[in-house]
Amino acid sequence: MKKILSTVLLAVYTLLGMAAGNKANLECVYRLTYQRDTINHRSVDAMMVLRLGDSQSLFYPQAQFESDSLSQGAESISELQAIKDTIQSRYGRITATYYVLKNFDKNRIDVVDDAVQTYKYTEPMPSFDWKYTEDKKTIGDYECQKATCKFGGRSYEVWFAPEIPISDGPWKFQGLPGLIVEAYDVQHHYEFSFLGMRKCAGEIAVPVEDYVKTTKYDFLKTKQLSIDDPNAFLAGIAATMGIKGNKVPKRLFYKTMELVDSIKK
Questions:
Q1: What is the DSSP letter of 40?
Q2: φ and ψ at 89, to 5 degrees?
Q3: What is the pLDDT of residues 209-223, one digit of tens each?
Q4: What is the pLDDT of residue 233?
């Protein structure tokens, strides 16, 4: 039954592939698991979605997407709090906040993410130097092949399904002859696992309009500082914005998915 459904969805994707504008026609759902404490090996999960269209795709966390979408129409603090409570009751604590918008026609990626404030940076579409292997395994209903690469200071192993003719995948991954259904760095600090596909007629657009433009290097540096020394980071933000606060944030022990040291200024 799953195989039949997948075949139907792929047929729909092919037929609607000429859709105009930034309308989506298919979504792939993943589970992101990442370690927020690499010393004590403590992990958190997030449901992630890859929304696919003709020339664009958007990868996002379901909880954050719903929160941002609903918040756009909020007119008061009480409404915002009600939205926050609804999202938390449905998903628990939000553990991923980033959006990755791939524009294949323009050969670029837009990333929107939070580090207390919301930031946006744009970069050229990454060129992954994929190394194919002979390793194969079945994931769900699909026979998958393994490929490897190095990117952003980490070494990755991914599994792609040649029978799903979508050259895309979770996060910034793309460029293989088939959908990437599983991906992880060799230390297993970040892992993406495929949960399934579904039809979609939504827009491919980031539901966030208020952000600070920055560079990739500056964002990663800011993000890592917010992880390594959140107290000093928030103090700096408070001083810049002219606000006061005495809440001491919890110290976490992990590195951003792309390492700051791997990025050229």
A1: T
A2: -70, -30
A3: 999 999 999 999 999
A4: 72
Torsion angle defined by CA atoms of residues 94, 125, 123 and 19, in that order, rounded to the nearest 10 degrees: -70
Distance of CA 184 to the CA centre of its chain: 13
The mean pLDDT value of the chain amounts to 88
Indicate the residue type of 199: K
Which of 59, 70, 62, 56 lies closest to 19, judged by CA?
56
For the four alpha carbons of 97, 102, 103 and 106, in that order, the dihedral sign comes to positive
What span, in angstroms and rounded, lies between the C-alpha atoms of 195 and 24? 19
Alpha-carbon distance 53 to 74, whole Å? 28
Distance set, CA 97 to CA 147, 151, 196, 207 (Å): 27, 21, 21, 12
Q: Which residues of the chain have pLDDT under 70?
A: 1-21, 235-249
What does the block give as tokens for 52? 């696919």
User: Where on the phi/psi map is residue 140: left (φ > 0), alpha (ψ -120 to 50), or beta?
Assistant: left
